[in-house]
Sequence to fold (131 residues):
Amino acid sequence: MSIQTLIASVKEQSFPISEYAVFGSALLGLYGLREVPNIDLIVTNKLWGKLIQEYTPNEEGFIRFSGVKISNWWFAVTRKDIPTMIKEAEIREGIPFVRIEEVRYYKEKLNREKDKRDIELIDQYLAQQQE
Fold:
């Protein structure tokens, strides 16, 4: 799916903007650094409570629909908690995105092959922004 299609899927949900943020590789899609297969959302416990009344989380603890993966937790490799990352998120395309520095930190800690490639793309992007 294109990043615009994924963003549209998020917008259709009309979630309160202060209760969620896009997290992970979708930011790379937004900046045109690479294609992304889905969009991950972190949400507040309040929004999560509402969502689980309508959707059943899968065995991994995520709610999935229309290329969107939602959670009120994330791997223990973030340096900030979810409410802080949501509060500090940047509004792009009308929805909140976790700051790129936090996504980079997360990817560096996971250190998977795909994350190493993403870190290179993020570093190139950040270097271009400083020129």
